[in-house]
Structure formats: C-alpha cells, structure tokens
Design goal:
With 274 residues, the protein is of the alpha/beta class. The protein has a single domain, classed as Carbamate kinase (3-Layer(aba) Sandwich). The chain has 8 helices and 14 strands. The strands form 3 sheets. Strands 5-8-2-1-11-13-14-12 form an 8-stranded mixed sheet, with helices on both faces. A 4-stranded mixed sheet has the order 7-6-9-10. Helix 1 crosses helix 3, helix 2 packs across helix 3 and helix 5 packs parallel to helix 7. The N and C termini lie far apart (54 Å).
Length: 274
C-alpha cells in the first residue's frame, strides 16, 4: 500500500538560474496585457526556465474596499491596512486574484500553482513596519523551499504577497514589489523583473532613465523625482541585488512580449538598476 506521494527532489547547482517576476499594475487587469504576459510565460516554463511570479492586486483591493465601505489611503506608497481591510486584502489577493492568474497561465500552457506567503514553513514572515500603517509588514525571513519543490515538480509558483506575522498574530499585508524583491534575493535570482504599466523610472522631464545606480536613486529620491509607488519598486531592486540577485529591472509591461524580448537580450524596455 502506498502511503506517501513522491515529492520532487530539489537539486541545485551553481548554474541554477531563477527568474522572479513581479506582475502588477493595470497590466494585470487589462485582459489583453495579461494574456500577452501569459503567452510570454508559457514557453519559458515549457523550456524549463525556473520562473516565480509574485503578483499585486492594488486595483482589485481598492474596488473591494469600496464595495465594503472600508476607507483606504496610502502613506509613502504603502496602503494603510486596519484589521477589516486586512481581511479584504487577503480575500482578494489569495482568493480572487491569485486563482484568476493561475487559471490564465494554465490556459496558455504554463503549469502553475497558487500560494501566498503564509504557505510553506511559511514562505514569508514579517513584522509590523509602522503601527500607523496598521497590518502592513516588512519581510524579516524568506524560506523559499516550497518554491523550489514546486519548480522541481514542473510548476510555476504564483505568489500572493501576504506574510505571516513573526509573532503569530496572523496575516500581514506586504507591498508586492517588496515581497517579490525579498523572494528574488532569497533565491539569488538571475533576473528580478518588475512588470508594470509604467515605462520605468522617469526623470523630472518625464523621460525614461534606462539605467540607474544606487547613487542615482538616492539623488532622485532626495529631489522627489522618485516618489509614491516607484519608491518600493527601486527599493525592492536594491534589496534583491544586495542579497545576491544578478540583474534587476523595472520593465514596461505595455510593450508587446516585453519579457520574452528582455530575456532574448533586447534593451530599452525599462530601467535597469545596478
């Protein structure tokens, strides 16, 4: 009698190359752009590329909070999240958005499995970053073992950015850019790609900056050019690089087949952070 299913063996070498993709913004809510991303992802998965997708869901969360008459606002690019809002955030991200994306990826040929940061051992632990922000977390530990097991089994892990409070007090809302950067760093990914509905980082004249150094970012933050939702994006890139990720960039998801073109070596598709 068989009492245990075989668990895929996880084997890694120095050449193991992970691609961590943060998928968010209105590229996720626009059916044409979402399908275009799924069509880019499917051949990568079929070729055996080790992809992980971490998704956002800001527009869907805002819509649900409005329906539930829960007030919502942002501080420094982060959504202030009280207990009632946290319940809605987890419901939308892990229960709605995650499953819709998984279904879309599967339909286009990418075998996928949905989970949140609370799954595994868990995948993501966090602490409350600032009591004024409510149940918004800063990631403290990442255990990517569950991701490696899924990838070894031929799946693309699709991760909702919800973490477990390190003090055991339930779910914490994690900015999706931040969560993706933490995962990319833990996996020491070859590529960390943030796909969104913006061209990349823009200068004061709204022109694309194709490459940024750490010093450039500090200067642009100080001058206020990098602000709002772009702050966690650039910070996520820097964190991933600090933890051993090889390449980090903010990719224009409105460009057709941007991900595939990037991995084929095309330039000018966003902002590279190094």
């Amino acid at each position: 009698m068989r009492i245990q299913e075989d668990i895929p063996m996880v084997t890694e070498t120095a050449d193991t190359q992970y691609i961590v993709i943060k998928f968010g913004g209105h590229t996720m809510t626009d059916p044409a752009l979402r399908d275009a991303f799924a069509m880019d992802l499917a051949p990568l998965a079929q070729e055996g590329r080790k992809c992980v997708v971490v998704h956002g869901g800001g527009p869907q969360i805002s819509s649900m909070l409005k329906r539930l008459n829960i007030e919502s606002h942002f501080e420094q690019g982060l959504r202030v999240t009280d207990d009632a809002a946290m319940e809605a955030v987890e419901m939308v991200l892990a229960g709605q958005v995650n499953k819709e994306l998984v279904a879309s990826f599967i339909a286009h040929g990418a075998k996928s499995a949905g989970l949140s940061g609370r799954d595994g051992t868990p995948l993501l632990k966090a602490r409350v970053v600032n009591p004024k922000l409510g149940r918004v977390g800063a990631v403290t530990t990442v255990d990517p073992e569950i991701l490696k097991v899924l990838i070894a089994g031929g799946f693309v892990p699709v991760v909702a950015p919800i973490a477990e409070d390190e003090e055991g007090k339930g779910a914490l809302n994690i900015n999706a850019d931040t969560a993706a950067g933490a995962v990319a760093g833990a996996l020491k990914a070859e590529y960390f790609v943030l796909i969104s509905d913006v061209p990349g980082v823009l200068d004061a004249d709204k022109k694309l900056l194709s490459s940024l150094t750490r010093e450039d970012i500090a200067s642009l933050k100080e001058s206020g050019v990098i602000n709002g939702g772009m702050l966690p994006k650039v910070d996520a890139c820097l964190h991933a690089l600090d933890k051993g990720c090889k390449k980090a960039l903010i990719l224009n998801g409105t460009e057709k087949s941007a991900l595939r073109r990037l991995l084929q070596g095309e330039s000018g598709l966003g902002t590279i952070v190094h």
